[in-house]
Amino acid sequence: MARQTPLRAIRGMHDLLPDQSARWQQLEDRARAVLERYGYQEMRTPLVEQSELFKRSIGEVTDIVEKEMYSFEDRGGDQLSLRPEGTASCVRAAIEHGLLEQPRRIWYRGPMFRRERPQRGRYRQFHQIGVEVFGLGGPDIDLEVILLTHRLWQALGLGDLRLEINSLGDSAERADYREQLVAYLRAHEDRLDDDSRRRLETNPLRVLDSKNPDLQALLASAPSLHAALGRDSRAHFEALCAGLERAGIAYEINPRLVRGLDYYNRTVFEWITDALGAQGTVCAGGRYDGLVEQLGGRATPAVGFALGLERLLELSDSAPPASIDAYLIAVGEQASAAAMPIAERIRDALPALRLICHCGGGSFKSQFKRADRSGARVALVLGDDELAQGRIGIKPLRAPQDDRTQASTDQAKAEQTSVALDALAEQLPRFL
Ligand code: HAM
């Protein structure tokens, strides 16, 4: 048969290749450790939901729902969508399984799908780690989720992230403000660009979000959302600011931070870096006290955030952790036959050891080459003679992890040590 044209991954959707996975796992492990330290429990929900869920939560006239969802009718005629974010699913599941009787701290991770124009830091399948807290309405929990993200940056070795916060008020306050803003923008409609004119009709608060430099002066003089906040919203926001100050977390109040999803009220926040170009928001979230009720549950306050793993990974320059410790090579008829059972015995004796057992035969030279390419710290070397004497060779391929000077690397590469097979489990760790 003639060779076929190879198929490619969908634009904006990426394969996670074997040599990248160690960094992803490291990031996910560190994040999970921090989340567990704050008492958050993981939840996993399906990647596909009824489209209606996202329309009712994110909002019919948001970019996500209007333009970016991967939606389809399944064979039973149901209207379904790949999830563009995790909050809606989390709320749906919490209602469905009666999780809202008491305060809950939940986290999740996984791929999200938005058909945006792909560019650096913006993909059509991307990955989030998110947090949702249900049943707590005060500024103290807003502070906790921000402190948690701050600790995450420390755990990941990230500096240089800027925290922006804002308050959107409650729905009545926002409705009042919306009227004021629409009146102001209508009075200056000739100065708006097409996008803002469209948003003025559908989602006027999002005009504040415009990055168009020509609009900045106009928007800077727009009525202030903060002036529209009532007493309770103001007190909530001030308590959060005071908490951040007590905790020594620097922040900026950005009165034009409005977020692209409709469900937010009161606190919203973003962590932003200048190091990633236009897509600099690595983490974003806020309070959404009306959403549970809007999706059919009993009124329950809620707050959460999600961070973008691709963006965080691009920002951190951590070296990938080594993934292989040892590579067992065997030459000779008896040695080759004994290699797999010996590898099993070694794995029994050293449960944390990551060991590859060579497959496919070949000379010492070719097997050593494979061992070296695997990234292993040591080769374990078995020949018929060694086997007959009950011994095995340990040949360092790299200096031990805690000593990587050039001298130690050269010295390490030079020597091969022979040890009794029975003593291998005891001897091997000092070479790793
Ligand atoms: P979001 O702002 O849409 O919020 O997304 C959160 C983060 O996901 C962004 O700050 C960014 O790091 C990452 N992200 C979003 N879209 C993309 C993309 N196309 N490519 C790469 N990364 C992306 C939410 O999703 C809310 N559910 C957050 C939340 C949780 N609010 C309350 N609870």
UniProtKB/TrEMBL annotation:
At the top level of its lineage, which domain of life is listed?
Bacteria
Which stretches of sequence are listed as region Disordered? 394-415
NCBIfam families tied to this protein:
hisS (TIGR00442)
* Domain Aminoacyl-transfer RNA synthetases class-II family profile, chain residue ranges per copy: 1-341
Please verify whether the record's keywords include Protein biosynthesis. Answer: yes
What PANTHER family does this protein's entry cite? HISTIDINE--TRNA LIGASE, MITOCHONDRIAL-RELATED (PTHR43707:SF1), HISTIDYL-TRNA SYNTHETASE (PTHR43707)
A single GO molecular function term of this UniProt record:
histidine-tRNA ligase activity
Q: Which UniProt keywords apply?
A: Aminoacyl-tRNA synthetase, ATP-binding, Cytoplasm, Ligase, Nucleotide-binding, Protein biosynthesis
Q: Which SUPFAM superfamilies match?
A: Class II aaRS ABD-related, Class II aaRS and biotin synthetases
Q: Which family does it belong to?
A: Belongs to the class-II aminoacyl-tRNA synthetase family.
Locate the residues binding L-histidine.
E85, G86, T87, R114, Q128, E132, R259, Y263, Y264
Cited HAMAP family: His_tRNA_synth
Relate the assembly described in the record: Homodimer.
Q: Which reaction does it catalyse?
A: tRNA(His) + L-histidine + ATP = L-histidyl-tRNA(His) + AMP + diphosphate + H(+)
The species is Halochromatium salexigens
Annotated localization = Cytoplasm
Provide ranges: composition bias, Polar residues.
Answer: 406-415
GO biological process: what's one of them?
histidyl-tRNA aminoacylation
List its EC numbers. Answer: 6.1.1.21
Put simply, this protein is called: Histidine--tRNA ligase
Record keyword Membrane present: no
What GO terms fall under cellular component here? cytoplasm
Please name the gene that encodes this protein.
Answer: hisS
